[in-house]
Amino acid sequence: MLVTYIEAIRQAMDEELARDGNVLLMGEDVGVMGGAFKASAGLQEKHGADRVVDMPISESLIVGAGVGLAVQGMRPILEMQFIDFISCGFDQIVNSAATLRYRHGGQTACPIVVRGPSGGGVHGGLYHSQNPEAWFCHVPGLKVVAPATAYDAKGLLKSAIRDDDPVIYFEHKFLYRRIKEEIPAEEYLVPIGKAALRKEGRDLTVIAYGAPVHAVMKAARDMATEVDIEVIDLRTLLPIDWATVKASVRKTGKVLIVHEARLTGGIGGEVAARIAQDCFEDLDGPVMRLGARDVHTPFAPALEDYVLPNQEKITEAIRKLAAY
Amino acid sequence: MTEQKDRDLYRRLRLIREFEDRISALDKQGKLMGGVYSGKGQEAVTVGFCHDLRWDDWIFPLHRDLGAYLVKGADPKRLMAQIFGKREGFAKGKDSYLHGGDLPNGIFGATSMLAATLPVAAGMAYKFKIRKEDRVAIAFFGEGASSRGDVHEAMNFAGVHKLPVVFVCENNFYAYSTPNELQFGVDDVADRAAGYGFKGEVVNGNDLHDVMKAAGKAIDRARKGDGPTLVECKTYRYHGHSEHDRADYRSEEELITWESRDPIFLWENYLEKRKYDIDAIRKETTGEVTRIVEEAVAFAEAGQAPEGPEAMEDLYAMPIETEAR
């Protein structure tokens, strides 16, 4: 069936709410209104107000209450209306949820999913454009995923809901209604911790996740006569699928990491460091990174475009790497 | 009050309304980007609290309080340029709407994290207190934001130190789609003031007289060193949470009920009963506010769009060394 990225998210929640009575969805305006972006349209009507819950404006509560529910064996999906607001629930995520199992010596699981719209490119300004995934990749005990396709959006969300650990699920709002894909009518899962080889190539590897995967794929197609690019979509950012990453780097010897999040302290740095250490002998060029400039994501179009990676910057970075 | 003052208040209400209406129209025409959060219907709250403030007092408006900007002294031209994301706006295009305050006029810019301004207002009021400055901070927040921890932390601290701050809750009954009964278990947010050791009061936020009376008392109390007050103004936003929101979650009857209690309508009624020449006042005011808003739009439209590299400015006091990337 042909679905948008956001419809895939809605289906994943709908199916899991139907499959498992312990699954809940909690968030601001998720019920009557069906969510600010309509990711939960119709779900309260179908599954009841006890299980699709309109919450007060209280992100710390939403996550904290989710932890309490999880200890009781429930599997709450916790929506941040914009992922930018996840900072308001930060303490409950990094100190309460992430340590829950550890500090109880393994006595309990913490099967929560915190999800919400991230990403820029929509003139959202400083507080509706953020990509805060790196904050959470620094926290052991969490799992972090960032799907780029409708297929993965659905499969990864279903896996996240069934996972016994806290999963932070970054959906990209730019993709919500901009991509449409055929996905299977029958049930499927996408495993957490597995990257996807989106395109095979011999000359260099581009590693990306989230919305930039599409720009990277376009570059790979457009530059096909110039350079044979291998594209890896990480899909899961914690834990990273190092086997897939390293196998590709060993084959091509050149690697560029692209993400929309800021460069300094970003996922790209971690990936680059691992490659430099573990694949040193295989490298034919510097491990390169392309991310947003180290500044907040501004509002005015020219400013936002200057800050975020785009097609042109990706092409330029690939050419630079290919020249080594 | 003098006729002049009555008319001045009327002009302020009408200017905000004209500004709001024009922004909604511009949004419909596709001339604006990003979120537009209309405060239409809530004008009496910001006029009531800001009309009598001094230049060196501070306000902390919430996301739909552009009226507070106008009353406190922000230049309508720059406010419009801010909304257009132009270089002439307060944030120079780095963000839009009310995220860029007008600091020289004592107007603090909010983040999108609701009520995150309340602890900031408390901190500022603490400085006013320890430096014995005769100044107050007015912190606006919505009833939805009252559920956030920041509100509790700010009010608790303000109560401990009897700070010169007034907390103004604009209760418009819906936080986006979420009604009061799913937001809190009390009837009135103002009830919570007792838990912090100061007074809470509920007023009709559409009645400018009511708001001014409560505001006057609360501001006096703050100036005299008698500590904070929580004033809850019951009001209503005519539009959705943002212009994209059709507000299907509420009834038309409810909207009409509130429109019949419109703050401008009520004030006109008062002017009429004072036997002023209401037709002449209305006409003159219409001409004046239309002109101000026209000029603001023209200024904003003619304003300069910022260029890419300006994105890196205003990040640190002194630019830090970064390699060109």
Q: Overview of this structure, please?
A:
The complex is a heterodimer of chains A (324) and B (325). Chain A is an alpha/beta fold and 324 residues long. Helix content of chain A is 36%, strand content 20%. Chain A has twelve helices and 14 strands. Chain A has helices spanning 5-19, 43-47, 59-71, 90-97, 100-103, 133-137, 150-162, 212-222, 242-252, 267-278, 301-307, 311-322, and strands at residues 2-4, 23-27, 52-54, 75-79, 113-118, 143-145, 167-172, 180-182, 196-199, 204-208, 229-233, 236-238, 255-262, 288-292. In chain A, the strands form three sheets. Chain A has a seven-stranded mixed β-sheet, sandwiched between helices. In chain A, strands 9-11-10-13-14 form a five-stranded mixed β-sheet, with helices on both faces. A two-stranded antiparallel sheet of chain A has the order 1-8. The longest helix of chain A has 15 residues, at 5-19. The mean pLDDT of chain A is 97. With 325 residues, chain B is an alpha/beta fold. Chain B has one domain (3-25, 34-302): Thiamin diphosphate (ThDP)-binding fold, Pyr/PP domains (Rossmann fold, 3-Layer(aba) Sandwich), CATH 3.40.50. Chain B has eleven helices and seven strands. Chain B has helices at 3-28, 43-50, 66-72, 76-83, 117-130, 149-160, 180-183, 208-223, 252-259, 263-273, 278-302, and strands spanning 58-60, 137-142, 165-171, 174-175, 178-179, 199-204, 229-234. In chain B, α4 crosses α11 (278-302). The model of chain B has no long low-confidence stretch (mean pLDDT 96).
Please give the structural blueprint.
The complex is a heterodimer of chains A (324) and B (325).
Chain A: E1 2-4, H1 5-19, E2 23-27, H2 43-47, E3 52-54, H3 59-71, E4 75-79, H4 90-97, H5 100-103, E5 113-118, H6 133-137, E6 143-145, H7 150-162, E7 167-172, E8 180-182, E9 196-199, E10 204-208, H8 212-222, E11 229-233, E12 236-238, H9 242-252, E13 255-262, H10 267-278, E14 288-292, H11 301-307, H12 311-322
Parallel strand pairs in A: 2-3, 2-4, 4-5, 5-7, 6-7, 10-11, 10-13, 13-14
Antiparallel strand pairs in A: 1-8, 6-12, 9-11
Chain B: H1 3-28, H2 43-50, E1 58-60, H3 66-72, H4 76-83, H5 117-130, E2 137-142, H6 149-160, E3 165-171, E4 174-175, E5 178-179, H7 180-183, E6 199-204, H8 208-223, E7 229-234, H9 252-259, H10 263-273, H11 278-302
Parallel strand pairs in B: 1-2, 2-3, 3-7, 6-7
Antiparallel strand pairs in B: 4-5
